[in-house]
Amino acid sequence: MALRSIGFIKWQKLCALLLAALLLVPASALTALAAQEESGDPSPIIYVIGQTPLYDDPASPDRKQLAKGAKADILDAVKEALPYAARAVMLGQWDAYADKAYDLLMEFYGGYGLNENGEVVNGSGPDFTWSEDALSSNYRSDWPYNYAFEYDARLSPMEIADDLNEYIEAVKRVTGKDKVSIVGRCLGANVMLAYIQKYQETQNYAGLDTAVFYDSSLLGVDMLEAAMSGTITVEPDAAGGFAAEYDLDLGNETLNEIVTLTLQMLRDTYGIEITAKLVERIYSHVRDTAVRRFLMSTYASFPGYWSMVYERFDEAKSYIFSGEKDAQTYAVMIEKIDAFRNQVQLRYKELIAGMQNAGVEVAAVCKYGFRGYPFYENAKRLSDGFTSLEKQSFGAACSEFDGTLEESYVAGREAEGFGAYISPDKQIDASAGLLPDTTWYLKNNTHNGFWDIISPLLLAICRNRDFTVRDSDTWTQFQYVTDPYHVVPMTADNCDPNGDITHSGSGSQAKNPLAAVWNFFKYLFNLLKTLFGSLKK
Questions:
Q1: Hey, where are the domains in the chain?
Q2: Is the C-alpha dihedral spanning 338, 342, 348, 353 positive or negative?
C-alpha cells in the first residue's frame, strides 16, 4: 500500500538508542467538507510520500528490509558494546571502542549506503513499480489523494524529480487532465519542489493546481543537521523534559524499567547535567572516527538526506568531505547536493512566489506538540518529534516547547491587527510565516501519526479554490488532536502548553521517590543478571 513508510522517527529512535548506548474524523467534519467542495471534474491529487521501505532485493520473495533491526538485536548490540565503552571511558581505549561501535552499527546498516557518486550499486531499493496501463486501475476516488508516488529517498531529489515528471505526465494522459495537485510530505516536499523547479517554473507553473507542503523538511531536520555537521550536543533542560515525557519501549521489560527509573532519578537531581557531559565526552572521542565513518557509509552518502540539511549545510560539507582527497573522491556527490541546494532549497521563496503569481494554490500543513531528541542545539523548539515547527511553517514565530510567546510580543501583534494569527495556546504567531493565510497547525500530532484525521483537510485544500484558514469553521488555522481518531478546532480550553503529553504508551514512571529508588535497585539486579554474560567477556 502506498502509505507504507519506514518513518524518520523510527530512524531517530534507533540512532538515538545506539548513540546513547554506544556513546474518524467526526461525521460533521466530513459533511462540512462535502458541502465546500467545488463541482465539476477536479484535477487528480498526487501524494509524494516521505519515505518507503528499502530492500536488498525488492523483487525477491526472500528480500530483507535494509536498516531495520529487531529490538532483541539492538539489545544484543548494546550489551556487546558495553565492555568496550567501559574500557574507553576508564582506560582511554577509544580507538578500539570506535572500531567496535562502527562494526556494530554496520550490522544494521550493511548494504544501505550508496557509492561515492550517490548511486545505488547493489540493486537495493523500494518495492514500487508502475506502468501507464496500470494507472487507471490504481486510481483512488476516495480522499485524500488519487495516486501515490514512491521513490528511493536516498537519491537526489533532482533525479527523483525526473521520475516524478514521467509519472505525472502519465497520470495526465490517463485522466485527460492538464493539471495536477501535489501533496509533498516531509522529504516528499523536497522532491515536489525539485519537480516544480525543473518542470514547472519554465512553463509558468501551467500544470499545477495546488502544491501542499505537508510536514516539510525543506528547511532542515535538526537531529540530522547536528549529526551531519558533527555538532551533536546534549541540552540538559531538553534532555530532562524528554526523559520525563518519553515512554521507552526497548523490547525488554527489565531494561525498560532500569532506563526509565534511572532517567527519573537523574532528572530529579543534577544527574542530567552530569550525564550530558559524559555523553558529550564520549562523542568528542568518536566524532571524527566511528560517527563520521558511519555517516559516510550511510546517511551522508544519500543526496536525498542532504536535501534535509539547511542551517548547517556548509558546516556539514566541511565535516563530511574534509580535505582535498574527499573533494575529489566525492566530486559527483557534491555536485548533486549543491544542485538541489542552489537551484531549489535556497530559492524556495522565489519558487513559491512564482507559483502564487501564476494562480497556483500553495499551502502548508504542520504538526507539533512533541519534543525532538535532545541531541542538538535549540532542542526545546516546538516540534512534531522530528521537524521543528518553525521550519515546517517557513518561519512562523514559535515559543519553546514548554513555554509561550512573550506577553508583550502577543500584545504588540494584537495591537497591529494580527491577533487572529496567534494560536490559542499562545505558542505560535502564524502571521510571521511565509504563508500566513494558508498554513494549518495541528497540535498533539506526531510526524508519522494519524493520517486519516488529516485527510479531509488535505482534500479541502486541494479541492477548493482560494481556500484559507478563515473559510471553514471545521478547519480553523489551529487544530487540536484529542485522540488518535479525532481532531477539533483549538481553543484556550483544550491546548494547555504545559499539559501532560507522552510520546507513546501510558508511561511507567514511579511517582514516589522512595519507590523509584527501591525499583531502581530491584531492576538493576535483574539487569546485571541479564548483562552478566556480556560483561564478563
A1: 15-36+360-501
A2: negative
